[in-house]
Design goal:
This protein is of the alpha/beta class. Helix content is 36%, strand content 18%.
Length: 517
């Protein structure tokens, strides 16, 4: 019996005896009496978490109250690992807003950039810039296949020569040396969409040999979504590296319920040994440039080539026919009002208005054809970022429940009050915890936390983060599970999350429940 007690004490104190744990004090910070959801997917337990410097030193479940310089009263609250966002566009403003407040207030402590095939090339100078501004949260990046290809070939629809492929392989290798977590692809976007699968696989193989992963905005998330998932799996299988379908969704009413097939494809891949996974955000609308309505061939050669095509009446008519089709059956969700302008540099007053409203304001009847003309006019004047309401809640829930899916925002560091961005930048993580855990009970609290912490940490190889365990870095979020939730909406996006009381990065408090520190 004495031996059993010794074993229990050792496990609770991570191998430290009671005397040794006390002798290590005073600790820098104690989080006392909280419910610990440790990120593993296991049920919560109650305990005290003691920090030493940037590290979790001791977790005590017996209430021994070791000496600590500072204490956070965690009674009635949950302590969990800080959330890791594996897909962000944070570089759009992280240098100007290094606090990343819209993320910190959600409990996000790590932002990963360079998704969708787009990243700085070369990567190292940019990472050095970010390091110099001393961000409140951790920051990392992928190297983007689209950016690599554009730097060598340009935005052109053609195969790479052997010499060009050799150059792209070397840029990939250098990106990994610079610190990339892997290769991202945006095979929906120019120039990624012009890339043969075998070329992507060649670059992915280099990233995999250097310990990286592949993460992909697939070629198609609508009628060819199953085919695109299979391509993403094949890149991982043939490239011999982990592969991930990012911001997984099913776009267009005619394609809804296809998540049954896509999730089955990922499960089948895993069953035969392919390390394939998924991430998603919890909203029924996507957001990207309004150019997403254009056919890829119309964008061959870059913006000036597109504008030249639009000036030719015959070519413009062909482009318009595709835009009409995309409004009807793809990102438009069957109605121009489903396309909302998030920002437009040439006319900031368009932010928040939908394509039907903009079309009517031009004195035109709101038809698919007139809405397509409006979209083309916006593109010609400088383009816009848009929000597309064309996703089904049932698919969203099915993907969220899948054991192979994790949570990621696809958001950005937001300038508060500017334009009308997708609310995912303010609410992704807390929305999962508030709406899908507490209100709808779609998944459990411990599984939701796993999808935000240890799972993305494992995917990225962040072996010292993602779990509340002694020896791990003290990236932590403390929240009220009965209050946590999102307030940002598509109509009023600039609203911070609620319910997060404390956020720590490497043992330092960056948010105290009221303001950034």
């Amino acid at each position: 019996m004495k031996a059993l007690r010794t074993l229990i004490a050792g496990s609770v104190l991570a191998g430290l005896s009671l005397a040794a744990a006390a002798a290590e004090g005073p600790y820098d910070l104690a989080i006392a009496g909280a419910r610990i959801v440790d990120g593993s997917g296991n049920p919560w337990y109650r305990g005290d978490v003691y920090l030493k410097g940037d590290t979790i030193a001791v977790i005590d479940i017996a209430g021994r109250k070791f000496e600590s310089k500072h204490t956070i009263d965690g009674r009635g609250l949950v302590v969990a690992p800080g959330f890791i966002d594996i897909h962000t566009h944070a570089r759009r403003a992280i240098l100007e807003i290094p606090t990343a407040e819209n993320y910190a207030r959600q409990g996000v402590t790590t932002l990963i950039e360079g998704p969708d095939g787009g990243s700085p090339v070369p990567l190292r100078p940019y990472l050095e810039q970010v390091g110099a501004v001393k961000t409140s949260v951790n920051f990392g990046a992928f190297i983007g296949q689209g950016s690599i290809r554009e730097s060598v070939i340009g935005p052109n629809d053609r195969k790479a020569t052997p010499e060009e492929l050799t150059r792209m392989l070397e840029i990939t290798r250098q990106g990994m040396r610079d610190g990339a977590f892997g290769l991202s692809t945006g095979l929906f976007y120019v120039p990624g969409t012009f890339t043969p699968t075998e070329e992507v696989t060649a670059l992915a193989k280099v990233a995999g040999e250097m310990g990286g992963i592949h993460i992909s905005h697939m070629r198609n998330e609508a009628k060819d979504v199953v085919k695109s998932v299979n391509e993403t799996v094949a890149i991982g299988e043939n490239g011999a590296l982990p592969t991930q379908v990012t911001h997984h969704k099913i776009i267009g009413k005619g394609n809804w319920s296809a998540s049954d097939q896509t999730l089955a494809a990922v499960a089948a891949a895993r069953a035969r040994g392919v390390d394939a996974t998924i991430d998603q955000y919890p909203y029924t609308a996507s957001s990207t440039g309004i150019n997403a309505l254009l056919p890829a061939w119309a964008q061959d050669g870059g913006r000036q080539a597109t504008l030249t095509r639009l000036k030719d009446p015959e070519t413009r008519a062909k482009i318009k026919a595709v835009v009409v089709d995309n409004i009807k059956f793809d990102r438009g969700g069957g109605d121009p009002k489903n396309i909302q302008i998030a920002s437009a540099g040439f006319d900031p007053t368009l932010a928040g208005k939908n394509l039907a409203q903009v079309t009517a304001a031009r004195g035109l009847e709101v038809t698919f054809e007139n809405a397509a003309d409006t979209a083309l006019d916006i593109i010609e004047k400088g383009g816009a970022s848009a929000i597309f309401h064309a996703i089904n809640e049932e698919d969203l829930v099915r993907i969220l429940r899948d054991p192979n899916s994790m949570v990621a925002s696809d958001g950005e560091v937001i300038r508060f009050g500017v334009a009308a961005p997708h609310p995912r930048g303010y609410g992704t993580f807390v929305r999962v915890l508030g709406r899908y855990v507490r209100e709808l009970k779609v998944i459990t609290l411990q599984d939701a936390i796993r999808k935000m912490t240890s799972f993305p940490a494992q995917r990225l190889g962040l072996l010292d983060r993602g779990l509340v365990r002694p020896g791990m870095k003290a990236d932590l979020v403390i929240f009220d599970e009965n209050e946590i939730g999102d307030r940002a909406t598509f109509e009023k996006p600039h609203q911070y999350a609620v319910g997060v009381k404390w956020v720590l990065v490497s043992g330092e408090v960056i948010f105290d429940g009221k303001s950034m520190t």
